[in-house]
Design brief:
It is a single chain. By secondary structure, the chain is mostly helical. The protein is built from two helices and no strands. Helix 1 runs antiparallel to helix 2. The protein is elongated, with a radius of gyration of 14 Å. The two termini are 18 Å apart.
Length: 61
C-alpha cells in the first residue's frame, strides 16, 4: 500500500474510534430509552467496522 492509502485507512480507523467514543459519551447522558438503544446500536456497529477493517489490515479473515 502506498503512504497515501495508509493515511486514508488511518483516518478511517480514527473516525471510527471517535464515533465509538462519542456514542459512549452520549449513551451515558441520554435519559430517553429509545435514543439510548439507538446510540448503543450505532456504537456496536462502529466497533464492528473498526474490528473488521483492522483484521483485514492484519491479513486475518
Amino acid at each position: 500500500m502506498s503512504p497515501k492509502e495508509l493515511s486514508y485507512i488511518d483516518d478511517c480507523l480514527g473516525h471510527l474510534e471517535f464515533m465509538d467514543s462519542l456514542c459512549s459519551d452520549l449513551e451515558s447522558e441520554l435519559d430517553n430509552r429509545e435514543m439510548n438503544t439507538l446510540t448503543k446500536n450505532a456504537r456496536m456497529q462502529f466497533q464492528k467496522q473498526f474490528k473488521c477493517l483492522y483484521k483485514l489490515l492484519q491479513g486475518d479473515k
